[in-house]
Amino acid sequence: MAELSTLARPYAKAAFNAAVEAGELSAWSSALATLGAIIGSDEVHQFIGNPSVTASEKATTLAQLAGDDCNEGAKSLLDVLAENNRFPLLTEISAQFDLLKAEHEKSADVVVKSAFSLSDAQQKTLSDKLAKKLDREVSLTIEIDTALIGGVIIKAGDLVIDDSVRGKLSKLADAMNS
């Protein structure tokens, strides 16, 4: 069977194109995130796996559970997913939609793991340099991980910059063992 990301891609692209056309990127993002969270519930997972419930009933129920977050476009997407028995893809569709949205908006969510807390000035400098390097508006999330010993690990999508003491020691050990 194909990977979830491969199956979810056309749905995410279609949802993204509809959102751009309607000028509702944030509303779609919110709807997909809500639906992705709902689909992760054990009760909902059992419900959508129930063969005695029609596809239409499943789509309607999911839309009702999402409440006001579920716009008309998202309801149409639910109908298509129901017809093709693809509800388990909702979490991946949401993730891929958010990647397309970030690319469109020229923004990036960056996670910085540091051995110590960073001052506001350090965060500002790091944010400015990453914005320049990535050519995007950067939203930093700082996580403290004392196991790093010192330095930072920066993750922005596929890009990972490991400038931690632990990472350097690991590279040194690998070099000595080879």
UniProtKB/TrEMBL annotation:
<keyword id="KW-0375">Hydrogen ion transport</keyword>
<dbReference type="InterPro" id="IPR020781">
    <property type="entry name" value="ATPase_OSCP/d_CS"/>
</dbReference>
<comment type="function">
    <text>This protein is part of the stalk that links CF(0) to CF(1). It either transmits conformational changes from CF(0) to CF(1) or is implicated in proton conduction.</text>
</comment>
<keyword id="KW-0472">Membrane</keyword>
<keyword id="KW-0406">Ion transport</keyword>
<dbReference type="Pfam" id="PF00213">
    <property type="entry name" value="OSCP"/>
</dbReference>
<comment type="similarity">
    <text>Belongs to the ATPase delta chain family.</text>
</comment>
<keyword id="KW-0813">Transport</keyword>
<comment type="function">
    <text>F(1)F(0) ATP synthase produces ATP from ADP in the presence of a proton or sodium gradient. F-type ATPases consist of two structural domains, F(1) containing the extramembraneous catalytic core and F(0) containing the membrane proton channel, linked together by a central stalk and a peripheral stalk. During catalysis, ATP synthesis in the catalytic domain of F(1) is coupled via a rotary mechanism of the central stalk subunits to proton translocation.</text>
</comment>
<protein>
    <recommendedName>
        <fullName>ATP synthase subunit delta</fullName>
    </recommendedName>
</protein>
<dbReference type="InterPro" id="IPR000711">
    <property type="entry name" value="ATPase_OSCP/dsu"/>
</dbReference>
<keyword id="KW-0066">ATP synthesis</keyword>
<keyword id="KW-0139">CF(1)</keyword>
<keyword id="KW-1003">Cell membrane</keyword>
